[in-house]
Amino acid sequence: MKNRFAYLTIVLGFAAVLLPAGKAQAIPAFARLYKTECNTCHTIFPDRKPFGDAFRKNSYVWPGKLPEQMEEEIQYAPRQEAAFQGMSSAGRKKPRAGNWLTAIPDQVPISLWVNHDIVFDKNAKRVTADAATGQSATVPATQFDLDGLTELEMFTGGSFRGKAGWWAEYNFAPDHDIGEIFVQLRHLLGSPVNLKIGRFKPRLSLWKSNDSATISSYGYNDMVVGVNTTTAVPTSGNPFTIDTEKGGVELNSLVGNRLFLATGVMTPPEKNRNGVDYYGHASVRFGGADFAGNDPEISLTRESIWENLALTFGSFVYVGSSLNEKLDTTTNTFLKFKNNFYRVAVEAEILYKNLRFRMNGIHGEDKNPQGPDGLGISERSRFYMAQGQYIFMRNLLAAMRYEYQDIEHEGTTRRYIPTIVYAPWQNVRMTLEYNHEIKPHVINLENINRVYTCRFTFAF
């Protein structure tokens, strides 16, 4: 079976190279709203170009001049005309700019995102129970699964007359949960500062969890410190992860179009009346398009490497606390155990034409992540990641990622993740990925995971 799957991967890979790409079809929400192609903001979606990053930073308001094919108020014009039907020309008064009705677009930008996975797991296991003895046992499971993870997500985003931007999403399957939902007020009180309010993921890393065409998210997004299965009562650790939506308020601003700053306070859902967390982010870009979406100046007399080279550097800090509770049966009261923690990171991205290289390093410390049933001591954590990718023929992407994760008292995990992505159209793609994970060794447990995944994705 393993050899068959390997042959299938090779065949599909060659097919991806040989199949011709059809005409680009840009139909997701923002492409429809602004009447432009998906590749205006993306290479192979959802991997963003610098202009797409600028569009997101600008509260989903088009940076600079609108596309030629879209008039400034085209999304509002039909509603205004409908309001004048049946009236004489004398009675047709143009709505005032401050009229609340003119902030409601006629075309609500809604899109759907669909994923389906076919998985080959070399080390899949399942737990069974003996009917006679009631004892449970772990046995090998089906390794080839045609019915892997299936996701259906709806999202909407846009702006209110350029004064504020919004974003909202809902995951129908498998989570059945609300994702990010926020409003960002632009240029607060005439200043260059924007105010973001709602439930969102903190602006920490240079890259959002979905800002990559690969299947697996960057490992630091879901890293949990303090998990311990060796104690009498297993501990789940500090519930904090970078890639978790939290209620919060953020202030962010562009300084000179090349420097982006953000700071905010958040209350994670598991805080249990334990105050707020704090974070800050700073990033700077040299060369290439700036954070406002402006392309570099091109000289007609001599070529400069900075026309095609962009260097982006970022850093962030997150300081917070989590609260564990345990029932004291002698007093019938809850004992509280507070865990103060921090995460500090440095990141960099090199973009040269079709070549992109990303790297980061994150250090952190938790004072008591295992809570009342754990070791009761602090734990330091480190995470390092490097990923290189190259785009061939505009619709074929190859990437390789290495991750190193080291959590004190838990051990070291290494991951090697090669990926191939083929997009016959801008809103349809197929991804082949292999995840080779080497976890800390535990007696009687397999410490190497080998997972092959084929994912089909489309958005509309």
**Average pLDDT score:** 80
CATH topology: Porin
Proportion of beta-strand residues? over 45%
Name of the CATH first level: Mainly Beta
Distance between the termini: 35 Å
Q: What is the annotated CATH architecture?
A: Beta Barrel
Low-confidence spans: pLDDT under 50, at least 5 residues?
A: 4-27, 71-100
Rounded Rg: 25 Å
Question: Structural class, judged by helices and strands?
Answer: mainly beta
Report the major sheet.
16 strands, antiparallel, barrel
Order of helices and strands: HHHHEEEEEEEEEEEEEEEEEEEEE
The total domain count is 1
Number of helices: 4
Provide the CATH superfamily. Porin
Which descriptors would you attach to this protein?
two-stranded antiparallel ribbon, 16-stranded antiparallel barrel, mainly beta, 460 residues, single chain, 8% helix, 4 helices, Porin
Textual characterization of the structure:
The protein is mainly beta and 460 residues long. The protein has one domain: Porin (Beta Barrel), CATH 2.40.160.10. It contains 4 helices and 21 strands. The chain has helices spanning 2-18, 29-34, 50-57, 77-84, and strands at 110-121, 125-129, 136-140, 144-145, 150-160, 164-173, 177-185, 193-200, 227-228, 235-236, 246-255, 259-267, 277-286, 309-328, 333-352, 355-366, 379-392, 396-407, 411-425, 428-438, 448-459. Strands 1-5-6-7-8-11-12-13-14-15-16-17-18-19-20-21 form a 16-stranded antiparallel barrel. It has a two-stranded antiparallel ribbon with strand order 2-3. A two-stranded antiparallel ribbon has the order 9-10. A hairpin with a 3-residue loop joins strand 11 and strand 12 (259-267). The longest helix is centred in the N-terminal third of the chain and has 17 residues, at 2-18. The chain starts with a helix and ends with a strand.
